[in-house]
Amino acid sequence: MSFGRAKPGQARPEVEQRGQHAGLDGRSTSVPRFGHGSRVPGWDEAADLTKDPAVIPDPALTPVPGGLRADVEAAMARYPDRRSATIPALYRAQEEYGWCSPEAIEQVACVMRLTPAYLISVATFYDMLETHPKPRNDVFVCTNISCSLRGADEFYEAMIAAATEDPDVSVRSFECLGACDIAPMASVNGEYVGPLELEDAGRIIEDLRAGRPVLEAKQLRHRRSVDPGANLQAARSAAGQARPEAELPDQNAGRDDPRSTP
Ligand code: FES
């Protein structure tokens, strides 16, 4: 895999190849991307217009794992229009199968009573839904302005180097992930961690391999807030009310906390 990125002062490559995956037919494919990460138009497969469109799958012929069905139904119950649950439903299926495989799409379509084509149109539009097999773990390193100013580009390079030999880890740069206050930061399988230092790249890989929470003391969910109610709420949601707030890792320990001054 090549995850090359232009260093400051270097010309940014116009197009780079990232994310080598096996295609649906087992052949190796790649998704050409511009240097900033967007997919180059024409990367996907053309529809076969000689085929009839796939219909909504027959529940009698489409077995769906119980947990997946329950979660998709719960997502649908949150919205007046069931199509509003498409993204969480596909994301849940991706968790189940590792990617939005044809089988996963078929099962979600069956539960949601939508056509596979509708779901595929959503899955191929959104960057965090994959329609090709991918490594199990996703590390998205934010390289947008706030993170970049605080060393994200160097961390991104370090993360790529740390993950080079690990086929279970995919590393990608991302635009602002909305957590600039912990810049430079990354999302590791959806868990926000930061502020990151170069040594954290190796620790992320070690934690993933060991099956531990990744950089637990740097997880956004444990970060203290000026709002004591927010701290308590975060602690409860993170620990299912099992861990009192006082026991959670305090990443502000030993730092000057400007928020504590009057
Ligand atoms: S710039 Fe990195 S989270 Fe906003």
Question: Layout of helices and strands, plus pairs?
Answer:
Blueprint (H helix, E strand, L loop, with lengths): L14 E8 L5 E7 L31 H11 L9 H12 L4 H11 L3 H8 L13 E6 L2 H5 L2 H12 L5 E6 L11 E3 L2 E3 L6 H11 L17 H12 L23
Parallel strand pairs: 3-4
Antiparallel strand pairs: 1-2, 3-5, 5-6
Helix pairs in contact: 1-2, 1-3, 2-3, 3-4, 6-7
Describe the structure.
The chain is an alpha+beta fold and 262 residues long. Among the domains are: 65 residues, Arc Repressor Mutant, subunit A (Orthogonal Bundle); 86 residues, Glutaredoxin (3-Layer(aba) Sandwich), CATH 3.40.30.10. Helix content is 31%, strand content 13%. The structure holds FE2/S2 (inorganic) cluster (FES). FE2/S2 (inorganic) cluster binds next to α5.
In short, what is this structure?
By secondary structure, the chain is of the alpha+beta class.
**Cofactors, ions and other ligands in the entry:** FE2/S2 (inorganic) cluster
Low-pLDDT runs of 5+ residues are 1-29, 242-248, 251-262
Name the helicity range. 25-40%
State the end-to-end distance.
Answer: 51 Å
Predict the CATH topology of the domain at 137-222: Glutaredoxin
Average pLDDT level = 82
Give the CA-based shape: globular
> What's the gyration radius in Å?
21 Å
Order of H and E elements: EEHHHHEHHEEEHH
* Fourth-tier CATH superfamily name of the domain at 137-222: Glutaredoxin
**Biggest β-sheet description:** 4 strands, mixed
Strand order of the largest sheet: 4-3-5-6
Structural class based on helices, strands and sheet pairing: alpha+beta
**CATH architectural arrangement of the domain at 137-222:** 3-Layer(aba) Sandwich
Number of helices: 8
Portion of residues in beta strands equals 5-15%
Please give the number of β-strands. Answer: 6
